[in-house]
């Protein structure tokens, strides 16, 4: 099943701070039908990050926006999070899980007529491994070889269990994208000008606006019948400006990256319609109890958890566009446990636990937060709620990358952050919580099951993603 347009419609505008391509693709089950001769105007929070999949500096989610229309991928993600065919019709995993053989389509050509065959796939994965882009690092670090067995068969070998590799390829467009092997010879030129086999060609890129036109030579004719002739992706760093542009009929769709304080003022159900899906993104708090040993005490962490009014944060900061939760895996994702109950705020019990832990006078902590919302607003709310039980936390707001680096180097006790979700729950834990200077130990696992999220975060608020669509243009 072809998912390029679905991924585009709901993933465009997403950033690393919001969600992975997996959630975006799954959210797009009811994508609107488009005028095949028309133009659709979409938004993105970033300008182009370069068209070379081997040197891409973005993330999985931004790779969807960047590559999904100009490149075919080896595999793709279906709407139910399972791996679906694309360039590869099928694949076979060896008994020892260290070899994958891909059976390729034979009817795909790049825009210049060069066949997309096994040699092209091999050249791309050798290039990805050599260029060492961070977004491709996990799989490329595992791969020990890639060989063309025939024009339509590719074999990859790995130094460890590769059972998750097809899923990782399917959800990461930078990893899955196959560029014209002739273009790989000039990495800098490919970064500026894409060379793909996808249904759209880039025709212009200026002032933060990308314009792409449909390529009628594309192999999937059924897809072409349901695709717009032209796509324009316009960068908006300010979500308020994007909403205003939608209301002014300057764009056709935007993904709102922050809760809307007054949705009814924007959404009239006729000119502007709303779609809400679970973003798969959670707002969380992490602890570094190497720096402050008191945080290693389960009673202290439970006290901090009970001091938080999760539902109040959902209502007042997220404007009801979120769900309170108490686990790092969102509802609807593999690994979510419905038996874990969300604790209600209990200040008296929190104070009692601090006393039992040996801290009757509370604690003083140092925290950091990215200088974006809803992160900052949540941090401020939690700061006030912790103060009510005698815990004073000073908070330093910094650009997201700066805050992340400072946290990983162990300079803070608390990190107000967010985490993205993946179909594989092991990837959720490994990629999101490996950033904690304190690793996820057996002690924390026991307390997670008990409803206290220890080092991996005591507050988890699932963000509902709002997509705004305009009605037919006059």
Characterization of the model:
The protein folds into two domains: 4-245, D-Maltodextrin-Binding Protein, domain 2 (3-Layer(aba) Sandwich), CATH 3.40.190.10; 278-464, Roll (Dipeptide-binding Protein, domain 3). It has 17 helices and 17 strands. It has helices spanning 4-11, 21-27, 60-67, 118-131, 137-142, 165-170, 173-176, 187-192, 221-225, 239-247, 298-306, 310-316, 347-356, 375-387, 400-408, 425-433, 442-449, and strands at residues 39-44, 75-77, 83-85, 88-93, 99-104, 143-150, 153-158, 200-206, 209-214, 230-235, 253-256, 272-287, 322-325, 363-370, 391-398, 414-420, 460-470. Strands 11, 12, 13, 14, 15, 16 and 17 form a seven-stranded mixed β-sheet that branches. Strand 6 (143-150) and strand 7 (153-158) form a beta hairpin. Helix 1 (4-11) packs across helix 2 and helix 11 (298-306) runs antiparallel to helix 13 (347-356). The longest helix has 14 residues, at 118-131. It starts with a helix and ends with a strand.
Whole-number total of structural domains: 2
Number of strands: 17
The end-to-end distance, rounded to whole angstroms, is: 33 Å
**Number of separate helices:** 17
Overall geometry comes to globular
The CATH architecture of the largest domain is 3-Layer(aba) Sandwich
Mean pLDDT rating:
82
- Rg from Cα: 23 Å
Tell me roughly what share of residues is in helical segments: 25-40%
CATH class of the largest domain: Alpha Beta
CATH H-level homologous superfamily name of the largest domain: Periplasmic binding protein-like II
Instruction: Please outline the major beta sheet.
Output: 7 strands, mixed
Model regions low in confidence, pLDDT < 50 over at least 5 residues: 1-31, 439-465
Structural class: alpha+beta
CATH topology of the largest domain: D-Maltodextrin-Binding Protein, domain 2
Report strand %: 15-25%
């Amino acid at each position: 099943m072809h998912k390029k347009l679905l991924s585009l419609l709901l993933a465009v505008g997403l950033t690393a701070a919001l969600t992975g391509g997996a959630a975006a693709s799954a959210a797009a089950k009811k994508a609107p039908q488009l005028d095949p001769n028309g133009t659709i105007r979409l938004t993105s929070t970033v300008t182009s990050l370069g068209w070379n999949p081997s040197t891409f500096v973005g993330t999985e989610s931004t790779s969807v926006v960047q590559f999904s229309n100009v490149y075919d991928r080896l595999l793709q993600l279906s709407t139910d999070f399972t791996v679906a065919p694309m360039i590869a019709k099928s694949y076979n995993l060896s008994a020892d899980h260290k070899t994958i053989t891909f059976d390729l389509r034979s009817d795909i050509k790049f825009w210049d007529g060069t066949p997309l065959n096994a040699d092209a796939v091999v050249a791309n994965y050798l290039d990805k491994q050599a260029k060492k882009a961070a977004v491709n690092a996990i799989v490329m670090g595992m791969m020990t070889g890639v060989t063309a067995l025939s024009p339509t068969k590719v074999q990859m070998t790995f130094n460890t269990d590769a059972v998750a590799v097809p899923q990782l390829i399917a959800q990461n467009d930078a990893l899955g994208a196959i560029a014209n092997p002739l273009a790989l010879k000039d990495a800098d030129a490919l970064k500026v000008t894409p060379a793909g086999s996808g249904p759209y060609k880039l025709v212009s890129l200026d002032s933060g606006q990308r314009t792409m036109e449909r390529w009628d030579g594309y192999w999937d004719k059924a897809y072409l019948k349901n695709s717009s002739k032209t796509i324009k992706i316009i960068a908006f760093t300010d979500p308020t400006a994007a909403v205003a542009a939608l209301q002014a009929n300057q764009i056709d769709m935007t993904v709102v990256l922050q809760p809307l304080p007054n949705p009814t003022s924007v959404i009239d159900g006729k000119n502007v319609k709303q779609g809400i899906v679970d973003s798969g993104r959670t707002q969380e708090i992490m602890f570094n109890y190497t720096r402050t040993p008191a945080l290693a005490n389960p009673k202290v962490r439970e006290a901090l958890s009970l001091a938080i009014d999760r539902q109040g944060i959902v209502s007042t900061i997220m404007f009801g566009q979120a769900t309170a939760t108490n686990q790092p895996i969102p509802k609807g994702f593999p690994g979510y446990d419905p038996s874990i109950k969300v604790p209600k705020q209990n200040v008296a019990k929190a104070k009692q636990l601090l006393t039992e832990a040996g801290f009757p006078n509370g604690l003083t902590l140092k925290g950091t937060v990215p200088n974006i919302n809803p992160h900052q607003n949540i941090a401020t709310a939690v700061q006030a709620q912790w103060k009510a039980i005698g815990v004073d936390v000073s908070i330093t707001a910094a650009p997201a990358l700066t805050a992340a680096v400072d946290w990983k180097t162990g300079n803070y006790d608390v990190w107000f952050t967010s985490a993205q979700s993946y179909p594989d729950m092991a990837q959720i834990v490994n990629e999101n919580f490996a950033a904690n200077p304190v690793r996820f130990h057996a002690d924390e696992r026991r307390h997670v099951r008990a409803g206290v999220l220890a080092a991996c975060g005591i507050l988890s608020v699932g963000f509902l993603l709002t997509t705004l669509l305009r009605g037919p243009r006059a």
